[in-house]
């Protein structure tokens, strides 16, 4: 894997907020595997205790159950930390349309607290999760940093806003911040349950359980699906990036595009089932097509994703088969 040869100083301590969630728990695992220390801060609002229990007996892992909406909790969590990987947030475009105030408090104020705590505790680098949703209705493909359209949901507003706050912390307070605009991440431990689950884990588990999946729209929408290993690589490379790249945002994706309907039939064939999906109307706030230009991350972070969609989906199917 292209992050195995990244070297940090002995006893380096990472803080992963949202470390009990899908992406965060995978970051914790990778850091432990590389031989460094990791502290996980999570309020378990959408993450799970099971993702903490996986590592709780590891001597280099510690867990704080706490909320990034509370500045004191963030200060405590940042004590002695070298690198922050800020993943804590609520995802989901449709849920954000129902709860705009909560999204503002959780995703914007929460991240602002983390930026402030990282600044006060003199953290070396602050890497944070942004999202491809910041491209809004911009029709241009591939999506390129600096060419954003009108934002289409409160969730997208929260991600765009934290990018601006992070830039302020680099500009005025010398905190090296790196915003990673993830594009549809998938892989082990992604939650398949509930109304707001992502399509890949949802389809796989529904098909494995003999249920009939639902596709919003005609299935001809496309996305840049990114395997979790590529996202881990991006986070760790950002920690080694030069200060000259700080204050910026980077597309983190595979740079390719998959159509939802093709994924669906690829999964039915891989799982050996013949089930026709039910089609529903498009969801408000969703965009039709999305794929990323990843050249900025390549050039400035040394990001070089080596997991293709096909390799990733095979691993994900196997994981869900063995863990349901
Ligand atoms: N999964 C994707 O495809 C994707 C795409 C773009 C951006 N992102 C972003 O990546 C990050 C991680 O997403 P994920 O898919 O792993 O989601 P997830 O829901 O699995 O993980 C988020 C974690 O953050 C925790 N959390 C939420 N609010 C918190 C708070 N106030 N204090 C402490 N912990 C809190 C949750 O309990 C959860 O464990 C999020 O910021 C998300 O917006 C994800």
Q: What can you see in these coordinates?
A:
By secondary structure, the chain is an alpha/beta fold. The chain has a domain at 12-187 and 228-255 and 287-307: Rossmann fold, CATH 3.40.50.720. Helix content is 40%, strand content 16%. The chain has eleven helices and 13 strands. The chain has helices spanning 22-34, 49-53, 71-78, 93-98, 100-120, 154-173, 199-208, 228-239, 260-271, 295-301, 309-323; strands at residues 13-17, 37-42, 61-65, 83-86, 125-131, 176-182, 185-186, 214-216, 222-223, 226-227, 248-252, 258-259, 278-280. The strands form four sheets. Strands 3-2-1-4-5-6-11 form a seven-stranded parallel beta sheet, sandwiched between helices. A two-stranded parallel sheet has the order 7-10. A two-stranded parallel sheet has the order 8-13. Helix 3 packs parallel to helix 5 and helix 5 runs parallel beside helix 6 (154-173). The longest helix is centred in the middle third of the chain and has 21 residues, at 100-120. The radius of gyration is 19 Å and the shape is globular. The model has no long low-confidence stretch (mean pLDDT 96). The site of nicotinamide-adenine-dinucleotide has 31 residues, from helix 1, strand 2, helix 5 and strand 5.
